[in-house]
Structures are given as structure tokens and as C-alpha cells.
Amino acid sequence: MTVAMTYVSTVDDPFCPQSPSADMQSDDFPYGSDTAAPVTASDILFSFEGRINRSKYWGYTLLLAVGMMVVAFIGFSFAGEIGLWSSYGLAVLFVVWPALAVSIKRCHDRNRSGWFVLVSLIPIVSIWYLIEVGFLRGTDGPNDYGEDPLT
Questions:
Q1: Which backbone phi and psi does 102 adopt, to 5 degrees?
Q2: Helix intervals (H) in 78-125
Q3: Nearest to 106 by CA among 64, 38, 50, 47
Q4: Residue 82 lies inside a defined structural domain of this protein
Q5: What is the average pLDDT across 122-150?
Q6: Domains identified in the chain, total number
Q7: Which terminus of the chain faces fewer neighbouring Cβ atoms within 10 Å, N or C?
């Protein structure tokens, strides 16, 4: 037996993310329903679409740094068998995609293209990237990349 539940509201409720605003169309939601789907950890780590706020950015960056150290430690433990550089490459392989996904989402929150991540590769200028992505607040309200993650 399947029970279907729907949320029906005649008033826009700013405190309930499930209540769609009157000016939003069903095409505005990425999952084809009247409500936006919740953002999961796999969406944050493996998708390049959407926005995340500063606290999620720093949380996932810390998680990825710890994960990199764990994978590197395990790899270095077997360095004699597979080689030191191979173990380091394995650690990087597990972290690069999620790190890019998290960084691009944070750029989107600042209403910048994901290509802005490349600024972090330029010496000295990378400080600007760190300040903008790591410390400045994202765009208030919806921007070109989605809804405000704080609402």
C-alpha cells in the first residue's frame, strides 16, 4: 500500500523550503517537481551544479583534507609494494573530483563561473581566491546558479 502526501499551502511560507513561491514555475526546480530536492552529500561531492555556503565549504574541505591524509597514510604504508608516488597519486585521485565540485559550488554561491577556480593556481593571486571563496558571503537570494543555500 502506497500513501502519497502533498504539501498544500495558500500562503508563501518563508520558513518552510517546501512551499513554492508564486513566481516560480515547475521548470525552476531541477528535479521536475514543485519542491526542490534536498541536497545530499553525494550531490555536494560529485556534482558541479548548485551552490553551498561558507560553512559547508569549510566542512567539506576539512573532510577532504582528512580523507586525503588517511588515504595517503594507507598508501604510504604499502609504499614498498606499489611505490611512493603511486600511493600519493592514489590519494590525489580520490580527492580531486570532490574538491573541485565543492570549490565550484562555492564559486557559484559568489555568482562566479566554475572556471574561477583556475585563479587559485596563480601564485599570489590565489590569496584573492581564498578570501573570496572562503571568507566572503555568497550572493543574497537566487543568482545565475540557483537558489540561496541559506534560505
A1: -65, -45
A2: 79-82, 84-109
A3: 50
A4: yes
A5: 93
A6: 1
A7: N
Nearest Cα to Cα of residue 101 among 12, 24, 39: 39
Higher pLDDT, 61 or 80: 61
Q: What is the DSSP letter of 121?
A: G
pLDDT tens-digit map of 107-131: 999 999 999 999 999 999 999 999 9
The type of residue at 121 is: L
Boundaries of domain holding 93: 39-134
Mean pLDDT of 34-53: 80
How remote is the C-alpha of 69 from its chain's centroid?
A: 21
pLDDT digits (tens, 9 = 90+) for 13-40: 443 444 444 444 444 444 443 445 457 8
Spatial distance between the Cα atoms of 144 and 76, rounded to a whole number of angstroms: 43
Phi and psi angles of residue 104, each rounded to the nearest 5 degrees, phi first: -65, -40
Q: Is residue 67 within 8 Å of residue 94, measured between CB atoms? A: yes
In a domain, 16, yes or no: no
145: its cell numbers: 546558479
Domain presence at residue 128:
yes
pTM of the entire predicted model: 0.69
